[in-house]
Amino acid sequence: MLDWAIYIIAILAFFLTHSIPVRPGNKAQIVAHLGARGFTLGYSALSIAALTLVIIAANRAPYVELWPWAPWQNYVTLIAMAGAVLIASLAIGRPNPLSFGGGNNDRFDPQAAGIIGWARHPLLAALLLWSLGHLIPNGNLAHLILFGLFASFSFFGKRIIDKRNQRLLGLEKWQHLSHTQRDIAITRTGLIRVCIGIAIYLLLLHVHSAFIGVTPLP
């Protein structure tokens, strides 16, 4: 019971640390003290730490099997993670006033939106791929709760963010910014981001077993 209690507390802590700092009033105060870059770095570090604690707590929760593991399930995770990492590498730090994870949002051009033209909330899309990809080979109750919650958050979170930004930006401005153009133009910056994403993906494959305790390869 103690392990389940710790697990539930870790989940609550994760969602609180992700929701409280980004509330407009709280974020404005933090940015005033740390600056926009400081807020991004601090929030990213907090997010990674909270996610790590949740994963550790899930691994320590009592094992209740719901479906058996099979080697093919790891390939689903590998493919989903490749997509998630590439989407995140194309999205993090680029202008995107329509969602979170952006930088220099005043430079956003709806007609040259890049990945945002295909997914208004690219980091939520990456989170959804990560969640579903990890859910398949982890057929136990603790991980079903973990990845199911993340998948639900990433699926329904876009509506919450849209409504918040419509209120903050004004409906007319939000509609103007959200009318993005889908293009397949290949830019130097885009290629660099793809290369970085591939490097991060390979790094994750290398360190996964050391940090998580499970090898991602079949």
Layout of helices and strands:
Layout: H1 2-19, H2 24-60, H3 72-91, H4 122-135, H5 141-169, H6 171-178, H7 188-212
List the main descriptive attributes of the protein structure presented here.
218 residues; mainly alpha
Short description:
By secondary structure, the protein is mainly alpha-helical. Helix content is 69%, strand content 0%.
The structure class reads mainly alpha
Reading the helices and strands in chain order gives: HHHHHHH
Cα distance, first to last residue?
Answer: 32 Å
Outline: globular
Enumerate the spans where pLDDT stays under 50 for 5 or more consecutive residues.
Answer: none
Q: In percent, how much strand structure appears in the residues?
A: under 5%
Number of helical segments? 7
Rounded to the nearest angstrom, the radius of gyration is: 18 Å
Mean pLDDT: 88
Q: Count the strands? A: 0
Biggest sheet features: none
